[in-house]
Amino acid sequence: MKSISVIFLVIFGILSAFLFSDTPKLTENDFEDDIAQIFKQSCSTSGCHQGRFPPMNLNLERDKFKASLVNVASQELPHLKLVDTGDSAKSYLLMKIRGNKAISGKQMPLDGPPLQEKDIQAIETWILHLKTGDSTKIDTDETGKGVEDTEIAKRKIETKPAFWGTRLVNLPTTQTIDKGKVLFRISHRYFPAVSDGYDDFYGLDGPAVILLSLGYGINDRLSISLARSNRFKEVELSFKWLVLEQREIPAIPVSAALNVGGGLITDIEAGEKTFQSKNIKFNAQLSISHRFSNAFSLVLVPAYSSNTNHWESSSQGTLSLGVGAKYMFPKDFSLIAEWIPVLAGFRAESSGWGIGIEKKIGGHVFQVFVTNSIGMTSSQFVPGGAFKLQDGDFRFGFNIFRLF
After folding, report:
1. pLDDT digits over 273-285, tens only?
2. The domain spanning residue 338 has which CATH number?
3. DSSP 172
4. Cα-based distances in Å from 97 to 39, 50, 74, 110, 234
5. What is the pLDDT of residues 47-65, one digit of tens each?
6. What residues make up the domain containing 248?
7. Can you give the pTM of this predicted structure?
8. Which of 275, 352, 363, 399 meets the CB 3.0–4.6 Å disulfide criterion with 384?
């Protein structure tokens, strides 16, 4: 009987401590892991709100979403804040994920299923637990338009890189691979000419010169790539280092990226050794770009490659100066062009050139163009092209980039 009384008193004491003790208050930190997971699954997927140039300058990765959202003016409706700690109901983030009629553009996530109500409630609860702090007041005029529109417009120039792809057609751009990301590239240059007509479907019946490449971002400024082309069965290893970025130093209005590497020809005759000097190539390109606006960018690429005519007994190197441009229309649809005249050394029949269109969709960049060069490694495109425009002797080609 005594033992039963003791047990009863112990249970009563535990229940009393639980019922009458102060319940710890939850803070925004208790919700951030859940919010980060929601954004990771639905919003910061490959090509969406992540990386150095996320859409609307809004990065929703785990360590960046809070700074990108809290008391930050929306770029679509600058008189509203993405997350308003002073009045959570006015948070533009909640309006976008709910598909409110007052939003500009489409409901988010774009091209994906809407967030579940439980996830929306979790985001709303997180906002309610944020500290109000010293939020910046955004005044509006009689039209309801934010007076900070000028500042927002200035920020918009930084929301897109000078170039989406790491290549324009063949020329390397100043675009790099984000840290920890993998970039897969597949490139085709159809060998039959467009002038061959319908019988060869304007060259698309093939065959084709193909290049496959894998790149990895060591950090946001340094990446490594390994590529293989079926032309001469060449393997190319290259490094890209982003030396300067235009938006970093106002006094230097350009970005600059150094590309260095080497190639190895593995298509050899019987009895020959693969690793001999005539099969090894070294190359370097300095890409210098200027972004005039989100729509228009130029790139200048002085380039050198050794042993560019390796099939000759006395091979030469090639020095060229490539120039390229991109003009973007709405919806990330662009016109791209490049021209690569040779300054010294071995040259093909004519300067290399390409002109086409580009479209970015999520983590993909698609490029379709016509070109007079079927070579895609550095030593193959630097000397120019073997086909002449005036003869209609040019080919269709494409590049596809996929970021993981």
Report:
1. 888 888 899 999 9
2. 2.40.160.40
3. B
4. 11, 17, 14, 10, 49
5. 677 766 677 777 777 777 7
6. 182-403
7. 0.70
8. 352
